[in-house]
Amino acid sequence: PPVTITMGVPEGLKPAAVLSNLPRPRPNPVRAGAASAPSPMSTSTMPPPPKAPPIEILGLKNSSG
Questions:
Q1: Rounded to an integer, what distance in angstroms lies between the CA atom of residue 53 and that of residue 21?
Q2: Whole-model pTM above 0.85?
Q3: Which sequence spans correspond to the domains of the chain?
Q4: Running DSSP on this structure, what letter comes out for residue 4?
Q5: Using CA atoms, how far apart are residues 59 and 51, in angstroms rounded to an integer?
Q6: Which of 1, 47, 51, 26 is nearest to 10 (CA)?
Q7: Three-point CA angle 28, 31, 35, nearest 5°
């Protein structure tokens, strides 16, 4: 059985065309929402990373001093 035919059209043919032909207005909205979600998530995750480097720098400074 053709496993490639998941949406009724072989993905190998044209995945982009299949998405465009799909009468599902959900994929588009979902992408927009996902893009919006990453923004806030990125901001929330951004604070933690910066904190890690500073700690290392402080440790190095302490070692040097």
A1: 48
A2: no
A3: 15-64
A4: T
A5: 13
A6: 1
A7: 145
